[in-house]
Amino acid sequence: MKKLVHIILIKLLLAVAVPVLANSEIEIKNIKPGVWVHTSYYTYPNGVKFPSNGLIFQQGDGLVLVDTAWGELATVALLETIKSQIKRPVIAAIVTHAHADRLAGTDVLKSNGIAVYAHPLTIKYATEYGSPVPDKAIDGLSSSPSVITLGNVEVLYPGPGHTTDNLMVWLPQAKIFYGGCAVRAKGATSIGNTAHSDVDYWRKIMKYISVEYQSAEIVIPGHGEMGDFSLISNTLKLVSEAAR
To answer: b/e string for 36-68 if b means 16 or more Cβ within 10 A?
Structure first.
């Protein structure tokens, strides 16, 4: 009897802690040749579903994933969807900071033989938070701002913003800027979660981005609808207002 109760309790806890996602709840959108946006949906206990974006880009014969889906089950579904829709192997992944919406599926990727790269601070914070830990530190991003080139993309560490470890990705040929959670969605009216933010420095990095990446034609936020360069302008406005 005790064993049965224990099993029931575990099932109830899992039902609360892990959002239920199927392949139909993973969306992959091709936005330019060799570039896709993936979106997963986290379901909160109150039933609200919240979208989370990531990036996929082709490098050689394989794919690089930027940010996992939001959850382990969601990341399993993401890999299955990539396999069925894009039909190319994921050869590496980059996570843009240490929050669960960016790296919750890290262990799924590692178990599939996919190396997961991150800022050294992300590895430090993930370890401290008890979260899945990326296994590869990206060298050359200790100062801010700093940029390194990985194949056909640039990985940018602008400095503290939404989090102190937030990375961004620039695809110069496609003119696509992936801002992650440091860039707010189209139509956003607030800067969102500031639990680990440095709002004053966030304003500084958005000023830097608004100058250095003016040629961006597509801007992808961590959550919500993507758009054009106006997302960067609006984020700068929102952060400036919050810093007052």
So the answer is: bbbbbbbbeeeeeeebbbbbbbbeeeebbbbbb
User: What's the rounded Cα separation, in Å, for the pair 75 and 51?
Assistant: 14
Is 6 tagged catalytic?
A: no
- Closest by CA to 242, choosing from 207, 216, 203, is 203
Q: What is the pTM of this model?
A: 0.89
Is 97 marked active-site?
Answer: yes
Split into its structural domains, the chain has a count of 1
Say which of 38, 53, 67, 101 is annotated catalytic.
101
Q: Which of the following is catalytic: 38, 119, 162, 223? A: 162
Whether 99 is catalytic: yes
6 belongs to a structural domain: no
Q: Which tens digit of pLDDT belongs to each residue from 34-76?
A: 999 999 999 889 998 999 999 999 999 999 999 999 999 999 9
Please tell me which residue in 38, 53, 67, 99 is annotated as part of the active site. Answer: 99
CATH of the domain at 131: 3.60.15.10
pLDDT-based confidence at residue 230 (cuts at 50, 70, 90):
very high
Residue 70 domain boundaries: 21-243
Catalytic residue from among 97, 165, 166, 223: 97
9: in domain:
no
